[in-house]
Amino acid sequence: MAPLTDEDYHSILTTELPSSSDPILQKYLSSRTALINEEYKQRSVTERQNKADSSFRQALSPIAKAACRIVDRIRDEEHHHVTTTPLTPDAMIKPKSWQIIQRLPKGGLLRAQMDALALANVDHLITLALETPGMCLSSSNGNLATAEARGDTTRRVEIRFRKNDQKSEQSIWSSDYESGTFVPLTNAADDYPEGGRSGFSKWLKARCGVVSRSDDSITTTTPQTEKTESFSSAEGRADSRLLRGMLYYEPIFRKFLRHLLVQLMEDGLSWSELRLTFPLDYYRTGSESPEPDSDQLFVVIGQEAASYCRQATTTPDDPGQRPPFWGFRIIWSTTRNQNQRSIIEDADSCIAAKMIWSDLVAGYDLADTDTDALGRSLTDMLPELFWFRKQCALEEVEIPFFLDAGGGIDGAGECNLFDALLLGTRRLGNAPSLYRHPRMIEAVKDKRILVESCLVPGKDDISNHPLLALIAQGVPCALSLGDAKEHAGESAGLGMTHQFWTALHACESLGLAGIGSLAENSVRWAAFEDQPPESWIRDIRAASVGSGLKAKRLKEWAVEWERFCLWIVTKYGDDYGEGGDGDGDGGVTASAN
Asked: pLDDT value at position 269?
């Protein structure tokens, strides 16, 4: 979609965009105030004990119940030996519980930003960039001849495709390097002054935002302190230009997407909803100029999706090994730190893409966490969001909201929860503060809204993670991957197996049945197809007894779940069978109703 002209934007601003005094916004704000007041009243009431729905656990087959008891015993055994053998999925010999969770049919991945997935697979991405002809590296504000310069995150370093390599004799690591000159990426890697290609890959990963915490050889400096410090995480230091410069060049993007789909399926996922964060610069093969719109990006996504669907196979003779592949869709995500005009242009582009690629575009989100100082609140963006919904209605397209809300420590992010619910979000991303709002919890349950939660070992105190409190209060939840900042680190590449394995060990009462319910919820709340709000809620209520595509997928997942449970009983039943403790029937289950 071409950028709006000044005339077009002025017309939208004066005739289409609702003002703060517009009756529709006044009615919305009145409802918002009433909801907030009701929330404050309910907070003062003594908390009621909430019992999570147990429909999933009650429906367990005898084989599934036996599998749950076996897994309980295996987990308890591993906890008993934790003082001598540290429980870590990074160990060369994985614990039995890890091997079990690897085979779990995990349903759908409902929240994962493409940039985060690229960051988690940055080694593979760098390899693809080095293998792709024409990829070059540049520094626009000085050479990188010294360790201090290479660690200076204020220096603008870019990776781009260039047709001609006339400057191949230059070295970006030399003091006579001309600023802004692109040099072949392979030359830059081979000539890296601290270890050649191996050192270059380590440096590039650090600039992108990922590095081993045990590695203290890479340093970064800031102009405020001029002190050298060790890279330990992506937060505040990641350079998205480098990551995106590699990822969104067509030859690399195609190969990376194929690799990603294989990886997701091998991780036990049948379905994914990937978030692409716009605006982004996408380059076609052999082009030095970005595309003016997203058309060619979606052409490639559509082609690769169709190709992989044809190639994907299952292995029914090896129960629990690999689930069926149902496909994936894209959630269009717009960064919150843009001005009004930019968000309107991007939202307009989303609608244009939906009209052409209806099967691929599943919904709309607003990127950047609530803690981002530059991110605008949902209340501030109400005019743009109401305009977006009106345009969707005029163009007769269904683009539901799947919003992130409830983060932050100053209360501003928590207010986004009220807006997300009133705007009709179908799922809530993260929502770490939701458990503190009893009235909001009731509203989330009444409206059949799912919370997509990400566990970040090493960052969160998993035993006190909000997910467990939400499950205990009957809120429907599913596990997901976080955004690029929180997902970076040593365990990032372990995917959803790590999420489910962490959940299994974080809460004794959750058990295999509890994480099975989380997986089922990810299928139940997946956006397999376009649905108006009424049929969306109807199919969630009906679950597997319905007649639509969602019911079909839930039945298919249930078959995989039974195969998985049978595999557990067959493999571990002799050693962990009925001789152990536990009945597998108690504890907390992720609510679905």
From this structure: 95
Using alpha carbons only, how large is the chain's radius of gyration in Å? 25
3-state SS assignment for residue 424: coil
CA–CA separation, 135 and 589 (whole Å): 50
- Token pair listed for 78: 């591993």
Tokens of 87: 């429980």
Please state, in angstroms and as integers, the Cα–Cα distance from residue 124 to each residue in 12, 128, 160, 201, 206, following that order: 44, 6, 17, 11, 15
Backbone φ, ψ for residue 285 (5° rounding): -55, 125
Q: Which residues of the chain have pLDDT under 50?
A: 43-53, 83-86, 92, 213-237, 314-317, 319-320, 369-374, 409, 484, 487-492, 580-589
CA dist 510 → 271, 388, 480 (Å): 24, 40, 17
pLDDT of residue 302: 94
- Torsion on CA atoms 423, 427, 428, 430, rounded to nearest 10: -160
The pLDDT score that the predictor gives to residue 41 is 58
Query: What pTM does this model have?
Result: 0.85
Show the beta-strand stretches assigned E in 388-449. Answer: 403-405, 427-430
Residue type present at position 277: T
Residue with tokens 């009431």: 45
- Structure tokens of 398? 């269904």
Tally the C-alpha atoms within 13 A of residue 334's C-alpha that lie toward its C-beta. 24
Q: What is the predicted pLDDT for the residue at 238?
A: 53
Show Cβ contacts of residue 368 under 8 Å, excluding neighbours closer than 6 positions: 335, 336, 337, 374, 375
Helices (H), 209-249: 240-247
- Of 233, 217, 112, the closest CA to residue 489 belongs to 233
CB 361 within 8 A of CB 398: no
CA distance 358 to 337: 27
Instruction: Give the up-direction half-sphere exposure of residue 457: CA atoms within 13 A in the CB hemisphere.
Output: 20
Give the chain's length. 593
Helices (H) and strands (E) in the chain, counts: 23, 13
- Whole-angstrom distance, CA of residue 330 vs CA of residue 148: 40
Write out the H or E segment, with its range, that includes residue 276: strand 269-278
The token duo for 85 is 């053998």
Beta partners for residue 427, in sequence order = 450
| HEC string for 48-75 | CCCCCCCHHHHCCCHHHHHHHHHHHHHH
Amino acid at 423: L
Which token pair is 306? 């169709």
Give Cα separations from 35 to 145, 379, 409 (angstroms).
58, 14, 21
Token match 């982004």: residue?
280
Q: Are 510 and 587 in contact (CB under 8 A)?
A: yes
Residue of 525, 381, 438 whose CA lies nearest to 50: 438
List of long-range contacts for 140-145, beta carbons under 8 Å, 24+ apart: 140/179, 140/180, 141/179, 142/179, 143/172, 143/173, 143/174, 143/175, 143/176, 143/177, 143/179, 144/172, 144/173, 144/177, 145/173, 145/174, 145/175, 145/177
Q: Assign 3-state DSSP to the chain and report helix, strand, coil percentages, each to 5.
A: 50, 10, 40
